[in-house]
Fold:
Amino acid sequence: MKKFPWIFSVLWLVILLIMLAAGFWQLSRAEEKQLINDRLASGEVNKPTLIQDWQQLKAFDQVEVQGQFVNTHFLLDNQIMEGQVGYFVFTAFNTIDDILLLINRGWTDDDQQNFDLQPRNQTIDALVADWPRPGIQLGEQTINNLNTQHLTYLEQQPVTALLKQRHCQQNNAGNCIILPRVLKLTVAMDHGFKRQWQLPKMTVEKHRAYAIQWFTMSLVLCLIYIGFIRKIYANKN
Structure:
């Protein structure tokens, strides 16, 4: 009498659960991308003022913000556009509600130009974006108290500390609000460089197609398991 294949069954179940989880993850990503597409298509422009307003915004939301640029610039190195290596220019911006944030003004291959702007109140249009992820960090980098400096990766904690040091009043440093997001300056706005903001590369349709593939493979795996078990019991009989 053959024993029930417990080890094979447990292995089959683990693989099945992984494949099903991958399929549902692709569906959730498709839903996220669809929401982004819907927000962009609606043309809705948000005008956040309080920190609570900013916390409700998501990546690719369109915003209109009033305030002024302050001359602290970070040049994010090794950014490629159309086959050329250059820099993304991040400049600090202080809103009329005293919230500090970074504006991605776009890409340039000229790091010797003057990035400073005249301090004046203005209204900017931009897209909300997550803070750039540093990825693999090869060694430590030093952030100095300079108007303009090169960075290999935009580390949130030291960059935030420098912004607080340079632009927060000493008697109000504890209450200084620095937004843990960045804004991407829209193409129509002045004071920017080359801007070709890309939507997420994976489309809704591709995510759904991958989900169907995972679910199809899960079904095939179930059929293989059923056939295997039936064969065992057929041989036993």
Remarks:
- The first strand starts at residue 45 and ends at 46.
